[in-house]
Each structure stands twice: as C-alpha cells, then as structure tokens.
C-alpha cells in the first residue's frame, strides 16, 4: 500500500468514532442544560390558504439558541433528544410554550406543533395534551399535531389508538412529510388524518421535472378522493405556487410566503403581492 496502513486506517476510524461519541455526549449534556437555562425558543412559520391567500395558521418550529447567539438546527439535536429520551421533557415544553404564546396572537389562528415518534409511543401523551390544554386554556380546535408516517410503523394499532384519543380531545392530526417514508399509503388507510403535508422533497424545479409534477398531482387527487386537505411544504417560487394552485392544492407553506419567525407575523406586503399575482 502506497499510503497509510490498515492499522492507521483503523486508528483513524476509531478516532472519528471517538469524536462522534464525544460530540453526542456534548449535545446530550447541552440539551439537559438548555431546558433548565431557557435556551429553547419557538419560531412560527405561516401556513397559507391557496384559495384566498390568507394565513390559516402557523407551525411552531423549535430553535436552540447557543450562548454566542447562533442556532443549532432541530435536524441535528432532535435525533439526539429522541435517542436519550430527552425529547419527552423537551416536547412537553414545546407544546406548553406554543399554546401559551399562541393564546396571545392577534387572531385565534391554528397552531401546528410537531410530535416525535417517541412522544407518540408514550402512553400518557393524550393525558399530557389534555392537561396542557386545561392549564393554558388553549382551545383544542386551534391545535393541530403533526406526526410523520414513520412515527406509526412500529405499532400501527397502538399508534392509531393514541391518535384517536388525541382527536377525542378536539385537536386535529396532520400527516407530516408525506411521501418520504415507505408506508405513506397504509398509514393513510389506518387513520383518518385531518391534513396531508406533502414533503418539500417534491417541490424542486417543477418546470422540468415531469416526475415531481405527476407525484404532486397524484397526491392532490388522493387527498381530494379521501376528502383530506393537502398542504404543500417548502414552496419557494412563484412557479411552484402557480402549479399548486392550478392543481387544486389547499394550503402552502414555505419561504415564498414567509420564513419561520420568533413572532407569528402577518404576510409581508411582498408575499401578499406574490400570492395575488400568481
Ligand atoms: P418539518 O416539521 O417538516 O418542518 C418544516 C421544515 O422545513 C422546517 O425546518 C422549516 O424551517 C423548513 N422550511 C420551511 N419552508 C421552507 C422552504 O421554503 N424551503 C426550505 N428549504 N425549508 C423550508 P426546521 O425548522 O429546521 O425543522 C426541521 C425538522 O425538525 C422539522 O421538519 C421537524 O421534523 C423537526 N422539528 C422542528 N421543531 C420540532 C419540535 O418542536 N418537535 C419535534 N419533535 N420536531 C421538531
Ligand atoms: Mg412539521
Ligand atoms: Mg414536514
Ligand atoms: Mg421534515
């Protein structure tokens, strides 16, 4: 071998493994401290009706602010929080804080909150949601819980049982990231979701992607047949919005309409013009 021996490779591998383990430990300890020190914040991204260009609600998105003011993405720390079980207290904090903050919005619009599969696997979830609704005085009809299809595959019967209990509280349930897992259709059959959120993976360059356009059409038609409204995630361009409107999409969410913000902001004048013109 010209460069590096096998033992050197293994040594390198062990070092990176070691580094990964240490990084994970740091994040875990950091998450514990973050809860205590109020380092979490919720940002809110508008969801907009395609029919009348009005905001129907906001999705709460968790942000972890570091001492230096920078943010760590939920894509990085949620998986660690799930592995360590810390997602349970964090998820409870998210739900409670979101309901408290949304109570003070100018308009009583819908509040969408993400639930982790780990939370769904927890028997006490319906009781916890019920308790938070009571404590905060938040109207259940305004609350929508977002659940990914992967949250349901380990035990479909149990998951649907818990989702039914949640619905009985008067909250609605949306299927998040639709189309990215491998059980989208059987999950749709197992539970009467109130909304389908089509994953942003299908947006991209719609103009020259026949496949994406066909899939979006099919999902919209599926939603129509099942009487489940469809929201398209990750809408960034006027072309995408035009296509979605033509095809009868119900709601949209994405940077074109508004980025996640610390406050539940109304649509900017620019976004209003864009939405009207499209
Ligand atoms: P998600 O629930 O599918 O949320 C949508 C993600 O897409 C958000 O990323 C949002 O900022 C981003 N996004 C919105 N519009 C656009 C767009 O036009 N273009 C692009 N490229 N991205 C857009 P974020 O906030 O980084 O969250 C990532 C994921 O982390 C979420 O995906 C959700 O699965 C998870 N997450 C966020 N907050 C929570 C939480 O409180 N609890 C749990 N369990 N998971 C959360
Ligand atoms: Mg979501
Ligand atoms: Mg999503
Ligand atoms: Mg996602």
UniProtKB/TrEMBL annotation:
EAL domain residues are 24-274
Q: Which domain of life is it from?
A: Bacteria
Query: What name goes with this protein?
Result: EAL domain-containing protein
Organism of derivation: Brevundimonas terrae
At the highest ranks, the source species' classification is: Bacteria, Pseudomonadati, Pseudomonadota, Alphaproteobacteria, Caulobacterales
Q: What part of the entire protein does this chain span?
A: 506 to 783 of 783
